[in-house]
Design brief:
About 25% of the residues lie in helices and about 35% in strands. With about 250 residues, the chain is of the alpha+beta class. The strands form 3 sheets. A 7-stranded antiparallel β-sheet has the order 2-11-7-1-5-4-3, covered by helices on one side. The protein has a 4-stranded antiparallel β-sheet with strand order 6-12-9-10, with no helix packed on it. The chain has a two-stranded antiparallel sheet with strand order 8-13. Helix 2 runs antiparallel to helix 3. It is globular.
Length: about 250
């Protein structure tokens, strides 16, 4: 199960209309360890040396905190059927995600699940803070733009949804795609726990899954393919128009 967020980055002076809790910093109860931002900075440098524009950080979010959310998530998780213009990863009708934030007048158009939004707001605010730190590091040496030249930037979440993948046809994966048709500044994905509440973990355990990115080039100048076996609390930061996919669940 993955919590995916599409975001745009804006200068702080353009963000007065945004929620004041965007100013919150990471809660010690939510992030896994002290020094996480320093760790992100170091990993971004390595990625940039390889001309890569994504980063996956293991257990950036405390798994115990995500466990605490899961019973209420199970109770309120209600997937919505939405239709994308042209499809997402070649799937026009998407029906395994529960949307908790949606763009006004955007595609897909559905009613957000406000109970889950209230439940996940502290996590989303932490994701805002972590994304801003990652984005600043990722773009620190780029040619100045309206956003990257301003150190006091904020993110505006455009669409947030929770997806449950299964081995059933049409529910196994979100295959190769770019988020927001390449029109968002970036995305963040948080891996959620295996369901141990509705049945024993061995019943709901799965095979397959994880994330794959096509980012950078190998020695032969071919697109570099990287797979991550993500687990609860892992966080992926994704820059604009980076190809990636949620890999197929084969069993579970």
């Amino acid at each position: 199960m993955l919590d995916a967020i599409d975001v745009n980055v804006e200068p702080a002076e353009d963000c007065e209309r945004k929620r004041p809790d965007d100013d919150l910093i990471c809660s010690a109860a939510i992030v896994e360890r002290a020094g996480l931002k320093n760790e992100i900075s170091k990993q971004v440098l390595r990625k940039k040396l390889g001309k890569q524009r994504h980063l996956v950080v293991e257990k950036a979010i405390h798994p115990d905190y995500l466990d605490s959310l899961f019973p209420a998530l199970l109770e309120n998780f209600d997937p919505q059927v939405v239709n994308y213009n042209g499809g997402v990863a070649k799937v026009k009708e998407w029906k395994i995600s529960c949307y908790i934030e949606v763009m006004q007048g955007g595609i897909p158009c559905t009613n957000p699940n406000l109970k889950l939004l209230d439940l996940f707001t502290p996590l989303l605010d932490t994701c805002n803070d972590l994304f801003v730190h990652w984005y600043r590091q990722q773009h620190s040496c780029n040619r100045p733009t309206k956003t990257s030249s301003n150190k006091d930037i904020k993110v505006h979440r455009l669409m947030t949804f929770i997806t449950r993948y299964t081995p059933n046809p049409g529910e196994q994966a979100l295959l190769k795609h770019v988020d927001g048709a390449g029109k968002v500044d970036g995305s963040i994905v948080v891996a959620l726990p295996v369901d141990r509440w509705s049945a024993p973990e061995e019943v709901n355990a799965f095979e397959g899954g994880g994330l794959t990115f096509w980012d950078g080039r190998d020695a032969a100048k071919r697109p570099l393919e990287m797979h991550y076996d993500t687990r609860s609390g892992d966080v992926a930061f994704i820059d604009r128009a980076v190809w990636h996919q949620a890999d197929p669940i084969t069993k579970g």
